[in-house]
Amino acid sequence: MIRLASLALIPALLLATPGMAAAQATPPAGFTLTTGTPRAPEQLSARFDKADLSFRIEPAEERIEGVAVLDFTATAPFEWLPLELDEAFSIEAIAMDGEDIHPDDGWKNENGRLWIDLAGVEAGRAFQLRIAYSGTPHEARNAPWDGGFVWSTTPDGKPWVATAVQGEGCDLFWPCIDHPQGEPAQVDLHITVPAGLSAPSNGRFLGKTENTDGTTTWNWSARQPNTYAIALNVGPYVEMAADYQSRFGNAIPMRFWRLETAPVDRAAALFAEFPLMLDFYETVIGPFPFGDEKMGVVETPHLGMEHQTINAYGNGYKLDGKGYDWLLQHELAHEWFGNQMTNVDWDDMWLHEGFGTYMQPLYARWLNGDRYMEVELAEMRKTLANRFPLVSGRSQESGAVYDGATGPGLDLYYKGALIAHSLRLLIGDEAFFRSLRRLIYDTAEPWPGNFRPVYRSTPDLIRIVNEEAGRDLGWFFDAYVYQAALPRLELTRDGDRATLAWTGAPGDFPMPVEVEIDGRSITLDMAGGRGAFDAPRGAHILIDPRNRVLRDLDFIEAWRARQTAN
């Protein structure tokens, strides 16, 4: 999602020692409101096979009842299994393979880390946990930037409910492994809501049941969903439906759940953008990753979020002169950059946000030409803070990354997009887009059915780019990704001879630069970070006339300083 404000979340906790109940670390207060802290050793030893999640949503009371049936397979022996679940919930019962586990000595939930005594499991053993719980979930104060449940009403007074938990994690409403690599292989959802309301969610629709108590249960199934991308949505929706005939031969269901009160013409215009955006992504990147499920969007009482196959949309059908709905396009990008390809750690979040954001100017060009792409890139350049590197090289939790006071913040998006643009222009379209396909699908020739979701890190991207470009580009990533400040070009003159030199890079920086001398263009290869050329006295020298290179620029930094001062 696009974050326009920082998150204020609480740092990580100490890890527990495997198999030793006495050493089970109690996480700090506020642990539930962060996500992506390092997994406990026991969690690393449990393969998460399936989560079957039943929810009863009670909008009038602003509470939920939940039953989570979780299937695991032990890959190494351990005694206790820690899960994450908000302490706001009362836990009614926990059972393992049908046998009750008693709370006195069999489980405890301290500050959101739920330790469960499994009485020892051996490697290779499959087991099932059933956890019944209920209560009032954490309410979002300003979703999606401050996440949780959103309890709202439609313009005509009907319940309108949504979840948005990217910054805080899945444990705000179901017991999970709250880490990017905590994805279950399959998630089934059974969402019970008051009759007359709909509950669109992730994956394939498996039907609904009209219950005798005046409620309806909506059933869904999704494969390997991103943990924070599992979403509950409840409201008086009207479903809009059509199929997209993919260039890869399959038909992709397109679904948009709009409010009953939404302006029909504007909703129809937004829905008409779905196939255009799918065509762009499938042409430029590759197959829609979840074509056997759906491209789904639901109108929400918050701005938006990349919920897998059910993206949240709250942009109000606004037009801003770009020729497309930026929010719809950005959240759809995350089906590739976030849901199909998921970062191994929050420290690699720029792989989601930077490349996802770069898709907007590329789409502007796809629709309307180079000028509209360049306008978007120029606006992005004005936002860069360059206070923290995009990647620190150490494990991070969400708050440290998204908060501009402690991490890259908005640079994840806009600096990441500009780095992607510079990389594309450096290595060429063929190598760039082959790199993206391998990053996303683990193959340069993806086809529906020949790929599965993958986890990726920044070193993975560097390795792939080096292979596709046929050269070592570590210097590029060292300067742009692992360093906060942008490299700078210095021009010196000596009679009719001029020299350009890169400064501020952590080592050799042979980034080629185009130079225009009185309208005549040359390209310097900048071997060793330097390049010289002839330029008569009084000649007008324009460096990088087509703005192909991301670099420090005095006039932008002066403008940012004045904006900050004002």
Q: Main β-sheet, in a few words?
A: 8 strands, mixed
Number of helices: 11
Which of globular, elongated, flat, extended, rod-shaped describes the shape? globular
Our Rg estimate from Cα atoms comes to 25 Å
**Class inferred from helices and paired strands:** alpha+beta
Instruction: Say what oligomer this is.
Output: single chain
For the residues shown, what is the average pLDDT? 93
Q: Could you name the ranges where pLDDT drops below 50 across 5 or more consecutive residues?
A: 1-23
Instruction: Tell me the helix content.
Output: 10-25%
Strand content: 25-35%
Number of DSSP E strands: 27
Distance between the termini: 28 Å
Provide the spatial order of strands within the biggest beta sheet: 5-4-8-2-1-11-13-12
Detailed description of the structure:
This protein has 566 residues and is of the alpha+beta class. The chain has eleven helices and 27 strands. It has an eight-stranded mixed sheet with strand order 5-4-8-2-1-11-13-12. A five-stranded mixed sheet has the order 15-16-17-19-18, covered by helices on one side. The longest helix is centred in the middle third of the chain and has 21 residues, at 264-284. The chain is globular, with a radius of gyration of 25 Å.
